[in-house]
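W.,

You were right to be curious about this one. When I first looked at the sequence I had no strong expectations either way, so I just let the prediction run and decided to look at it fresh. Below is the sequence, 313 residues in total, followed by the output.
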Amino acid sequence: MTLLPADLHELGQDLRRAAVRRTRRAQRRVVAFIAIVALGTGAGVAVATSLIGSPAPRGAQLDLRRAVQWTNSPGLRLQTAKVVATSPAATLYSIADKRGNYCLELIGRTPGVIFGFGCESTQVYAVAHKLLFSGTAPGASYIDAPDGTAPPVLQFGRFPPHTISGQATYDNGARESIHAGLDGFFIYQPSARFQPLARRMPMTLEFREQNGAIWSYYQQPPQPLTVVGDHHISGRVVIDGATKVEIDTASRLGNSPRQVFVPLHADGSFSWTGRPGSVVYRLTVRDAKDEPVSADTGLLTPTAMREMSALAK
């Protein structure tokens, strides 16, 4: 299940204030920080791996506590959200209990926007099925920077129980290790060498147990988007085999979506403008056989985008 923050502007302000406090403390301790840009051009935030385990900013705390209501896990309500993993492009926050239930939020720190959210509950219901909210490897939304630069591809989530190592294996056989942060949470940001592959082709996230058993999760590449105003969406697709884009849209929130297919130009670009007041539920890139070749992309709401733009300025 994907949720969006109720107030992205408040979240951004909290992130910036927290960064200032942490930077001052770090200067006194002479800790080396990684300088990055938070949630868009112009909003600087400093984050270091030494911050793993520290409390999440107030905005992330509120978002994650709201998400707890969906998991029906009372133990989560007693926990404090923490920084559980970092990468050069993003920070992962999570609230988790001792039974393995958790919610997590990914916030990008590069030009453009990277945002992801997911929950997982281990509660077993009367039908003997576990309630899973795609928490092991949830998806993220990617919005291009104003200059057209696409944010880097990321994967994030948590190592499955009892696994001791992780790696990403691309469809062409290339491999790269995945490193765990706090309590098995991770952000996998492909290296510069592998970023082009991560944009073009699927990868399989593989997690190995000590006895050799492997958990695997097949991940199709995400599609970064450019969003202008409330209704115009465009982008450039570099995914192998792509021929068109499917946009699921409705006249208003709550209505059943209809499918709109947008062909790709020779250079992979596409453009679509919806009707005023319309809503886009998701976007998926498809091949000539109408099979999906990308992960489903959920769009940030127009209100959320305006908050991001204000923060970037």
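Here's what jumped out at me. Residues 8-219 form one domain. And, maybe more interesting for your project: The radius of gyration is 19 Å.

Coffee later to discuss?

I.
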